[in-house]
Design goal:
This is Methionine--tRNA ligase, mitochondrial. By secondary structure, the protein is an alpha/beta fold. It is about 50% helix and about 15% strand.
Length: about 600
């Protein structure tokens, strides 16, 4: 009889729903079904959206939670001070890490979030020499700038790796010895076109000619020079079939456009050449010596990629493995060809999940020192706050394509979204005029719709918000989730303008339920918004929950499942009946 309502749902589909969602959401569906028996078409419409949401995607995927237990940024090269691109990569990874913790059902589960600095190689040696600086001291100074930046940006890393550390040298030596013992390393003469800027030999299919007739890398535009020397070589050629199987069947690269492009490149391979993994000490003195041969130094990229093993505890037992990588599109080759090949050759599991992002332009131009348009991330944090610059980068950063940075756009986005949209809603719903008792009222959904029928679309949007953010965040598309949140907040702010609640206060005897229904929807939406935005703006999120006096167990992603449901209503009536009288300024207009 239940299924003979406005919405027809088969028993099999409900079984699928039960398989995907247990606990509070099961209560939610039962509540919805009871409502539907009342044949209220408005409630039925809301219920239909919730059911579709539930059936569309498993809310808490154990696979993704597991894959996100070990998140790693690339380690950043210390030939220069950090720029806005470094900050974006690290904040992006931090948001993933915070999100992973928020959806994890295991509070005590181990996790690693690693970042750090890459401190060896010819470029660093030359840069330090040009500044008349001791190389080790130069690396100390620049590395400390990266650590300082990440601390100021509230990046919650658990490990900061430096390739000059002894623990890392031991990991590199062990990894090298394993590969050599398994027959994947041999010594031979190596020749080819070499990019000093990229510190890499460039294959023929990635070489083009510029207007001056010079050979350059088609990927980076850097000038190439022919180079010959005797090096240690890694047998990449024998890994071709395993790499193709890995890219086709074993790894997920997000966004999909990067995965698709890489698959096309793999399918077009005729051969895969072996690669040099060492450099002669006669031209490079700053690096890790190859085991058993002090005349050679470990190639900087072999050295750098091994940092992920270092973070996991190698050469001892790995604490977690494999890592989820967050990388820029310019280093896909190293992380999606060389790195998995090294790992599989050592009989270690290659990555299963890689998030790749595009670059930032300044006023639609590539940032460069020569143009004088490189953005100082410290200055951005000083001007816009840590949460402010995090919000802008993650809202305006589109991983699949390059994004544009300008001071005006930062100011406009933060003023519009954080100060006006979110800040205005908080100020309205907690103002003395509209909420003189400073309460967090609670009503059954039937009561809300009875006294405030204009809110049905907002309730529907609010209930979809969590699952849409979950899907967007899992895909690394934070901007999609943020836009969903902001669009819902705009709807409820528009509702304030429509019903003009300040006029209801003149006759609370008649209008109390209508006014308090609006306050309940507003405050509950703000509570959920703070949870969904916590990976993006952790400080703002915390201040909102403190303002609303929300208990810790109601600050979790799990508690967003049953928004406006009876389960939350019963618990939260005790937990947050009063809001703090302290004024909250979410974000001061710039």
């Amino acid at each position: 009889m239940i299924w003979d309502c406005t919405i027809s749902i088969s028993a099999n589909r409900f079984g699928l729903f039960q398989d995907h969602f247990k606990g509070p959401l099961t209560t939610t569906i039962l509540t919805i079904m009871k409502m539907m028996i009342n044949s209220n078409p408005i409630i039925a419409k809301i219920s239909q959206s919730c059911i579709k949401k539930a059936l569309s995607k498993r809310l808490f995927s154990n696979q993704y939670v597991s894959d996100l237990n070990f998140i790693a940024t690339p380690i950043f090269y210390v030939n220069s001070v950090p720029h806005i691109g470094h900050l974006y990569t690290t904040v992006y990874a931090d948001a993933l890490n915070r999100f992973s913790k928020s959806i994890s059902s295991k509070e005590s589960s181990r996790s690693i979030f690693a970042t750090g600095t890459d401190e060896h190689g010819l470029k660093i040696q030359k840069t330090a020499t040009s500044k008349n600086s001791d190389i080790s001291k130069f690396c100390d100074e620049i590395s400390s700038e990266f650590r300082k930046l990440f601390d100021r940006a509230d990046v919650s890393y658990t490990d900061f790796i430096r390739t000059t550390e002894n623990r890392h040298r031991l990991a590199v030596e062990k990894f090298w010895n394993v590969l050599e013992s398994r027959g994947f390393i041999y010594k031979s003469k190596y020749e080819g076109y070499y990019s000093l800027n990229d510190e890499a030999f460039v294959p023929e299919n990635m070489i083009t000619v510029n207007d001056l007739g010079e050979k350059i890398s088609s990927a980076t535009g850097h000038t190439l020079h022919w180079h010959e020397e005797e090096n240690y070589i890694f047998r990449l050629s024998v890994m071709k079939d395993r790499l193709i199987d890995w890219i086709e069947n074993q790894v997920e690269i997000k966004p999909k456009n990067f995965h698709t492009a890489l698959q096309a490149d793999f399918r077009n391979w005729d051969t895969l050449n072996d690669i040099s993994i060492s450099r002669c000490r006669s031209r490079l003195s700053w690096g890790i010596p190859t085991p058993n041969d002090n005349r050679q130094l470990v190639y900087v990229w072999f050295d750098a990629l091994t940092n992920y093993l270092t973070a996991a505890g190698y050469p001892n037992e790995l604490k977690l493995w494999p890592p989820c990588h967050v990388i820029g599109k310019d280093i896909i080759k190293f992380h999606c060809i060389y790195w998995p090949a090294f790992l599989m050759a050592a009989d270690l599991e290659p990555p299963k999940l890689i998030y790749c992002h595009s670059h930032w332009l300044y006023d639609h131009k590539k940032m460069s020192k020569s143009l004088g348009n490189v953005i100082d991330p410290f200055d951005c944090i000083e001007k816009f706050t840590s949460d402010g610059i995090r919000y802008f980068l993650l809202k305006e950063g589109t991983p699949h394509s390059d994004s544009n940075f300008s001071i005006d756009s930062v100011r406009n986005v933060l003023n519009s979204d954080l100060a006006d949209n979110l800040g205005n809603l908080i100020n309205r719903s907690t103002s003395i005029k509209l909420n003189p008792s400073q309460i967090f009222p609670h009503f059954p959904i039937e009561t809300i719709i009875k006294f405030l029928p204009e809110c049905c679309e907002i309730i529907e949007s609010s209930r979809l918000m969590s699952s849409k953010c979950l899907e967007a965040y899992l895909d690394g598309n934070f901007y999609i989730g943020i836009n969903e949140i902001m669009n819902t907040l705009r709807k409820i702010n528009a509702l304030y303008n429509q019903i003009e609640p300040w006029k209801l206060t003149s006759d609370l005897g008649r209008n109390r339920e209508r006014l308090e229904s609006l306050l309940y929807i507003s405050l509950e939406l703000i509570r959920v918004t703070a949870i969904l935005l916590e990976p993006i703006v952790p400080n703002i999120s915390k201040s909102i929950h403190e303002k609303l006096n929300i208990d810790e167990d109601l600050r979790t992603w799990k508690s967003t499942e049953n928004i406006f449901g009876s389960d939350f209503d019963q618990r939260s009536r005790r937990a947050c009946a009063k809001v703090s009288a302290k004024k909250l300024f979410v974000f001061s207009k710039i």
